[in-house]
Specification:
This protein has 151 residues and is α+β, with helices and mostly antiparallel strands. It has 2 domains: 3-51, no CATH class; 60-149, Fusion Protein Consisting Of Minor Coat Protein, Glycine Rich Linker, Tola, And A His Tag, Chain: A, Domain 2 (2-Layer Sandwich). 21% of the residues lie in helices and 37% in strands. It is built from 2 helices and 9 strands, in the order βββαββαββββ. Strand 7 (132-134) and strand 8 form a beta hairpin. It starts with a strand and ends with a strand.
C-alpha cells in the first residue's frame, strides 16, 4: 500500500477540544507526483466544461412555519388517537415554474393509509415553494421527498 496516514493530535488549549488530524503521505517516493496546474482538457474528451457540473435547481419552502404547524398537529392527533407509529413514505411532487405543486403521489407506501395521506396532504395542500431556478431561470421540476414518521 503506497499510502500511509500521517497522524498527529492537536490540543487546543483552554477550549476542551481534542482533534485527531490524519493526512495521507506517500510511503514510496516513486509515487510522488510533480506539482502542476490541473489541466481539465486531459479529463474531458471535448472541452473542460463537460466535466464541470451545471448549477443545481434548489427548492425552498415559502411557508416553513405552516409546514411545522401541520406536522405538529398531525403528530399530536396521532399521539392522542394512539395511532402514532414509525414508517417512511416517499412522495413524488411536480412543481411548476411558479413554485406551485401541480401534482403529487405516493411512490413508496408506509403500508399505513393515515401516514400516506398525511404525507401527501403535506405537499398537496400545505407546502408552498419558491420557484426553482437553474442558472437564474425559473424551471419546473419533479422531486421525490422521503417523509419519516413519527415526525
Amino acid at each position: 500500500d503506497a499510502l500511509e496516514p500521517d497522524t498527529h493530535e492537536e490540543d487546543h488549549q483552554g477550549e476542551g477540544i481534542r482533534v485527531l488530524v490524519e493526512s495521507p503521505t506517500l510511503a514510496d517516493p516513486a509515487f510522488r507526483l510533480e506539482t502542476s496546474t490541473l489541466n481539465l482538457s486531459r479529463m474531458a474528451g471535448i472541452t473542460p466544461e463537460l466535466f464541470m457540473p451545471g448549477t443545481s435547481a434548489w427548492l425552498l419552502i415559502r411557508n416553513p412555519a405552516d409546514v411545522e404547524e401541520y406536522m405538529k398537529i398531525v403528530g399530536y392527533e396521532q399521539a392522542m388517537q394512539g395511532t402514532a407509529a414509525q414508517g417512511l413514505v416517499n412522495v413524488a411532487v411536480w412543481i411548476d415554474d411558479r413554485g406551485s405543486v401541480e401534482w403529487s403521489e405516493v411512490t413508496k407506501s408506509s403500508e399505513r393509509l393515515d401516514m400516506d395521506e398525511a404525507a401527501l396532504a403535506l405537499f398537496s395542500d400545505i407546502a408552498s415553494f419558491r420557484p426553482a431556478r437553474d442558472q437564474g431561470v425559473r424551471v419546473s421540476m419533479s422531486v421525490i421527498f422521503s417523509v419519516e414518521f413519527p415526525w
